């Protein structure tokens, strides 16, 4: 699949906004700590991915009822669903000058019912000729997402026969449907009802 930049300007994928608030001190401190332990762009990107994947539980796995949506809040509360965790990873990437994008899949149950939009991240390290997609949602039995810039190792490869799809667009800011679901949900139970089923 060819990934399509929503914005032709690569600098759009370094910008800060209310969800990707990478100038927030919490994001900056986390990024600085990860950078000090890594020392180069590739190692930092891998460390940031693994930090978000492994130290911030997906609230669907942990049962945490809180809904975080700003990157800084996700890092502070150590909580979030796929969209929120993607916001945190993109903020950490951008904090160290690595273009990061938000991208999405449409997934479903094994019988094709209950479709839902799932959030991913794409990054394009300086000097790279293409974007690479990553899934920081968090591993669990049956889910084994990995950091790999050459071959996708996503949590959920799509099954077109069930109506699942990869959306090719790379967004510089969260998709409005995903952001609205997060912002308008008082708790995770309400969020589950508000999740978009398609983009």
UniProtKB/TrEMBL annotation:
<feature type="domain" description="Transglutaminase-like">
    <location>
        <begin position="30"/>
        <end position="136"/>
    </location>
</feature>
<protein>
    <submittedName>
        <fullName>Transglutaminase</fullName>
    </submittedName>
</protein>
<dbReference type="InterPro" id="IPR038765">
    <property type="entry name" value="Papain-like_cys_pep_sf"/>
</dbReference>
<dbReference type="InterPro" id="IPR002931">
    <property type="entry name" value="Transglutaminase-like"/>
</dbReference>
<dbReference type="Pfam" id="PF01841">
    <property type="entry name" value="Transglut_core"/>
</dbReference>
């Amino acid at each position: 699949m060819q990934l399509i930049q929503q914005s032709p300007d690569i600098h759009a994928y370094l910008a800060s906004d209310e969800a990707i608030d990478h100038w927030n001190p919490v994001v900056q401190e986390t990024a600085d700590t990860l950078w000090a332990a890594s020392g180069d762009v590739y190692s930092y990107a891998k460390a940031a991915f693994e930090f978000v994947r492994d130290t911030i539980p997906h609230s669907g796995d942990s049962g945490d009822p809180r809904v975080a949506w700003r990157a800084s809040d996700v890092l502070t509360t150590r909580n979030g669903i796929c969209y929120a965790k993607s916001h945190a990873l993109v903020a950490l990437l951008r904090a160290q000058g690595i273009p990061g994008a938000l991208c999405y899949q449409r997934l479903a149950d094994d019988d094709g019912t209950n479709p839902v939009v799932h959030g991913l991240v794409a990054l394009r390290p300086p000097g790279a000729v293409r974007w690479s997609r990553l899934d920081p949602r968090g591993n669990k039995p049956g889910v084994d997402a990995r950091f790999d810039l050459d071959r996708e190792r996503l949590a959920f490869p799509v099954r077109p026969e069930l109506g699942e799809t990869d959306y090719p667009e790379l967004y510089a800011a969260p998709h409005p449907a995903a952001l609205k679901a997060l912002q308008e949900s008082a708790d995770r139970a309400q969020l589950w009802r508000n999740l978009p089923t398609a983009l």
